[in-house]
Amino acid sequence: MALVLLFGNQPFVEWVSRHTSSDNAWGWFLRVLTWPRWAFGPVDGSSGAMRRLLADDLRALLLILFVALILGVVSKAVTGGAGGFLLGWSALIFGSALAAFITSFIISNPTFVGALQSAAAGSAYGLFVGWVVGALTGTAKGAGS
Predict the structure, then answer these.
(1) Which residues cross the membrane (predicted)?
(2) pLDDT digits over 40-81, tens only?
(3) First to last CA, the chain
């Protein structure tokens, strides 16, 4: 949840898009971190912009919900350490892909291929950011054992 709140907020997303380039590793990673973007506030009056805002906000919320659900259901079977790390990492991969797939049908002119492309972008976020959740899950479970 902290990753979504810290790196998905509108000021940070705008800062990253203005001050970084995807041509280097650091800029590329910062852009990946901003994937579950969310925003509060006015948008222009077009229905497309409103749908995009709703889809982005819902995607961020569903990401948090799906990851929490996966961790809550499966965490009892994992004792921590490497298993906890893999659980946290995979939970973010699956949760972000599912959130992206579902919310892609909210935007204007949705397609099944577009939903699959959104799920691929979501799973990339989980793949490259999920190690943070994995590390926290692995150490939290290890400490409780």
Answers:
(1) 60-79, 85-107, 119-140
(2) 665 555 666 777 777 778 888 899 999 999 988 887 777 778
(3) 24
